[in-house]
Q: What sequence folds into this?
C-alpha cells in the first residue's frame, strides 16, 4: 500500500498489511499506535473525513461526555496524560475532538489512516489464513488480522415512521450533526427522543428556537451534571497520583473508582439514604455513578432501587411548575439506571419555559412525518426543523453493517441472528483473527469507555504478539468456551434489574432485534482479571494454530 495522505485514490489492486483496523476513534488510534510500535504494518479505514469517532459525529448542541475528564482520557502515555490540560469537569465535544486530533498528530498516526472510506466487506480465506477487506471506494486489502474498532453507538437510528421523505423542513440526527452547526433562531423545532442526546440538546435548542416541542416516549432519570471549570489544584493533585488513580479505575466496577458500598439501601437508615441521595443530586463533584454505587443493592433489588428513583421523582416535582408536565417527566416504568441514566444541565427547568411543550408520544404515538411536520394519533405539529435524538443500533449495529464472512463462508449477521455470541467480547467462533474492541459480552457501554478501550487494545495486541512470537497464524474461540461465556454474560445480567427495562442495552430500540442483555455487568475489574487469567493459561478457551 502507498503511504500517502488521508484521501487517496482507491487502491483496487490487492494491498497487504498485517492488520486492518476499522474506525479511527479512540480505539482505532490507540490500536494503530500500539501495533505500529510492535512492528506491525497497519492500515486504518475511517468513514468520517476526520478522526474522533463518537466525538467526530456527535456535534449536537450541548454534546459533552458524562464521565469526568480526569477519568475519560488515555493513560497509556505518561507525557500525554501529564501535559494535556482539561478545562472542565465534563469536557465538551469540541475539546474532546481537539484532544483526539492532538493524539493523532502527537503519535504521527494520520499517514496510515484512510479517511472517508467505509469498510463494506471482510471475507476470510482459510487457505491463505488471511482476510480480504473491501471498501466503498473500491480498496482491496489482504490482512492477517481485522480489528473492529467501530464503536458501540455509531449506527444512528431514525424512527421507522412513514413520511420522512415528504418533509419539507430540515431534519437532523444528533449522531450525524452538521459540522457547520445549526441555527434554530426563530424556528419551530421538534425534538424526538429524551435519552442522553435529547437531554443534553433540549435546553440549548429551547434557548435558541422560537418554539420547541419535545416528543417524549419514555421519561428518563436525569441527574444534575454540575459541570464547572476544572479546579487547577484538583487537576494537579490527580496528575501527581495518576498511576494510583488509574489503577483504582481499572479495578473498579464501572471504570470509575468509588468508595466501596458497605450496606444495602434498605439496611441503611432513612437519614443515611437521604444523605447519600442529597450528595448524588446536589454535590458539584457528584458523578453519574453516585446513585448506583452508594449502596450494595442498587442494581439488584427493586425496593432498594425505588428509594433512589423516588428521590429523583420528588426533585422533578419540585423543579417543574406544571404538575401534569412534572408527572409526565417522572420515570415510573423502569428502575433507576436500567436505561442509561442521563446527566443534565437545566433539563427539567427547561420545561418551565413558555416556549417549550412536552408531548407524550407513549400515549399518543407519532404516526407520520408530514410535509409540514409531524402527526401523532390526535394532533398535527407544524415544524421548521426536526431533531431525531433517537439513538443507535447499539453494540452490534456497526459490526453487522459490514458483510463479514468467516470460516466456510459463515456470516456474522447470521451467526448473531438470535443475539451476539462472543468469547470475552473480543472474538467469535468461526471468525479467526477477527477482533472486536468493547464488543458485546464485555463491560463496554457499562463502563468508562476509556478504561475498557485501553484494556481491550492492550489485551488484543498482546494476543496478536503472542501468536507471532510462537510462530502461529490464527486464533479464534472454541465453540464451547464461547457458549459458556455467552451463558455467563446472560446469567450475570439476569441477576440484576437491567433486563426489566426496555433499553438499547437489551436491543429493544431496534424493531426485530433479539432481546439479549449485550454488555457484561460483572465489573471492569473482575473482567480484566478473567482476561488476564485466560492469557496466562495459554489463552485458555481459544484455538490457536
Ligand atoms: O439515544 P437513546 P441517545 N418515537 O437510545 C426515543 C450515549 N451517550 O443518543 O426510550 C418516539 O438513549 C427513545 O424512546 P424510548 C449513552 O450511553 C452519551 O440519547 O425507546 N421516541 C429515547 O427517548 C446513551 O445512552 C452521552 O421509549 C423514540 C430516545 O429516542 C447512548 O449514547 C451523550 C422513537 C433515544 O435515546 C444513546 O443516547 C449522548 C420513536 N419512534 C449519548 N424512537 C454522554 O456522554 C426512539 N425514541 C453525555
A:
Amino acid at each position: 500500500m502507498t503511504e500517502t495522505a488521508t484521501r487517496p485514490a482507491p487502491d483496487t489492486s490487492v494491498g497487504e498489511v498485517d492488520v486492518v483496523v476499522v474506525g479511527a476513534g479512540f480505539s482505532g488510534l490507540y490500536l494503530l499506535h500500539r501495533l505500529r510500535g510492535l512492528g506491525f504494518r497497519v492500515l486504518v479505514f475511517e468513514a468520517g473525513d476526520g478522526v474522533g469517532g463518537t466525538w467526530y459525529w456527535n456535534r449536537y448542541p450541548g454534546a459533552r461526555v458524562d464521565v469526568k475528564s480526569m477519568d475519560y482520557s488515555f493513560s497509556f502515555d505518561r507525557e500525554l496524560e501529564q501535559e494535556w490540560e482539561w478545562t472542565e469537569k465534563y469536557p465538551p465535544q469540541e475539546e474532546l475532538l481537539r484532544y483526539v486530533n492532538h493524539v493523532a498528530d502527537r503519535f504521527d498516526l494520520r499517514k496510515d489512516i484512510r479517511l472517508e472510506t467505509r469498510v463494506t466487506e471482510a471475507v476470510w480465506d482459510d487457505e491463505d489464513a488471511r482476510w480480504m477487506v473491501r471498501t466503498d471506494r473500491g480498496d482491496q486489502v489482504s490482512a492477517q488480522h481485522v480489528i473492529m474498532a467501530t464503536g458501540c453507538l455509531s449506527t444512528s437510528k431514525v424512527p421507522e415512521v412513514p413520511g420522512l421523505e415528504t418533509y419539507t423542513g430540515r431534519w437532523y440526527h444528533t449522531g450525524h450533526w452538521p459540522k457547520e452547526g445549526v441555527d434554530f433562531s426563530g424556528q419551530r423545532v421538534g425534538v424526538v427522543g429524551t435519552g442522553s442526546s435529547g437531554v443534553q440538546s433540549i435546553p440549548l435548542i429551547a434557548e435558541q428556537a422560537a418554539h420547541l416541542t419535545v416528543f417524549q416516549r419514555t421519561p428518563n432519570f436525569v441527574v444534575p451534571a454540575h459541570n464547572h471549570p476544572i479546579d487547577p489544584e484538583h487537576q494537579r493533585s490527580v496528575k501527581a497520583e495518576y498511576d494510583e488513580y488509574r489503577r483504582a479505575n481499572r479495578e473498579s466496577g464501572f471504570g470509575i473508582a468509588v468508595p466501596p458500598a458497605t450496606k444495602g439501601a434498605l439496611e441503611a437508615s432513612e437519614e443515611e439514604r437521604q444523605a447519600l441521595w442529597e450528595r448524588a443530586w446536589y454535590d458539584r463533584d457528584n458523578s453519574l455513578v453516585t446513585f448506583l454505587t452508594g449502596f450494595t443493592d442498587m442494581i439488584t433489588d427493586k425496593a432498594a432501587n425505588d428509594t433512589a428513583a423516588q428521590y429523583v421523582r420528588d426533585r422533578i416535582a419540585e423543579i417543574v411548575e406544571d404538575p401534569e408536565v412534572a408527572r409526565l417527566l417522572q420515570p415510573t416504568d423502569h428502575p433507576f439506571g436500567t436505561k442509561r441514566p442521563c446527566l443534565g444541565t437545566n433539563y427539567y427547568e427547561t420545561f418551565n419555559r413558555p416556549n417549550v411543550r412536552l408531548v407524550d408520544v407513549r400515549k399518543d404515538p407519532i404516526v407520520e412525518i408530514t410535509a409540514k411536520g409531524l402527526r401523532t394519533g390526535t394532533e398535527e405539529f407544524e415544524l421548521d426543523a426536526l431533531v431525531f435524538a433517537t439513538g443507535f443500533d447499539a453494540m452490534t449495529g456497526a459490526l453487522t453493517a459490514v458483510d463479514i464472512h468467516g470460516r466456510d463462508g459463515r456470516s456474522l449477521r447470521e451467526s448473531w441472528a438470535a443475539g451476539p455470541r462472543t468469547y470475552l467480547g473480543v472474538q467469535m467462533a468461526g471468525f479467526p483473527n477477527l477482533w472486536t474492541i468493547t464488543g458485546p459480552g464485555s463491560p463496554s457501554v457499562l463502563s468508562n469507555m476509556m478504561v475498557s478501550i485501553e484494556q481491550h487494545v492492550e489485551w488484543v495486541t498482546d494476543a496478536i504478539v503472542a501468536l507471532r512470537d510462537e510462530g502461529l497464524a490464527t486464533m479464534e474461540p472454541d465453540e464451547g468456551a464461547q457458549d459458556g461465556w455467552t451463558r455467563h454474560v446472560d446469567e450475570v445480567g439476569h441477576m440484576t434489574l437491567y433486563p426489566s427495562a426496555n433499553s438499547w442495552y437489551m436491543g429493544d430500540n431496534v424493531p426485530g432485534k433479539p432481546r439479549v442483555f449485550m454488555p457484561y455487568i460483572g465489573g471492569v475489574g473482575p473482567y480484566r482479571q478473567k482476561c488476564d487469567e485466560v492469557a496466562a493459561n495459554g489463552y485458555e478457551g481459544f484455538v490457536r494454530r
User: Anything to note?
Assistant: The first strand starts at residue 14 and ends at 22. The pocket of 3-acetylpyridine adenine dinucleotide is lined by residues 65-66, 153, 159, 161, 174, 192-198, 200, 215, 217-218, 340, 361, 366, 389-392, 445, 504, 509 (CB under 6 Å). Residues 1-5 have pLDDT under 50 and may be disordered.
